Amino acid sequence: xxxxxxxxxxxxxxxxxxxxxxxxxxxxxxxxxxxxxxxxxxxxxxxxxxxxxxxxxxxxxxxxxxxxxxxxxxxxxxxxxxxxxxxxxxxxxxxxxxxxxxxxxxxxxxxxxxxxxxxxxxxxxxxxxxxxxxxxxxxxxxxxxxxxxxxxxxxxxxxxxxxxxxxxxxxxxxxxxxxxxxxxxxxxxxxxxxxxxxxxxxxxxxxxxxxxxxxxxxxxxxxxxxxxxxxxxxxxxxxxxxxxxxxxxxxxxx
Length: 254
Hints:
The chain is an alpha/beta fold and 254 residues long. 26% of the residues lie in helices and 23% in strands.
């Protein structure tokens, strides 16, 4: 599905990844889950493109639902894979991160469905990326779309958003999503505490994208956001504040 000029959204109701097209070449932004491979191939065929047209793969952060088919595409297309230096060791398999405590959240129906979908789609089948290039905050990458890197740590140490300045498209990764990852309710939100390495830093990182002039924000999870990024940040902060206040309250949820 084309969601902005030269940008196509792929994935599922749970997880997004994207194709950026420029002058016949493609950048794959994030790589979904391993089970999304057939969808990627079908989308390329629909576009009249081939795997060999993928020139680069950009990984916003190292979680399995964003790295999924990266190595498979790299081998098939001889494409360069790029990620922030802080997350690179996890993507390459040099280091392993501790899995989030999903089991403690399985009483939540949406979390249970999300986890079940992820397992069926191969989240446990981690394929390390054998050859990886690194980027840093502020770089404009010489790949199709020429996105600018915006470091937004907290969810992971090396998580980055990416901005197509000429198209006014912001890929916010999991720094700012558009549904609550605990309840599935729509609306701007930060990732829940149990999947972040530093929850306070995740909130503070919103300031890095708050004033970006974009006509559309494309998150790692949820629907495109077509209003001001500033408003999405405000609503996410508000939701985080209310959630934390509820957990501090001695009263049961109504």
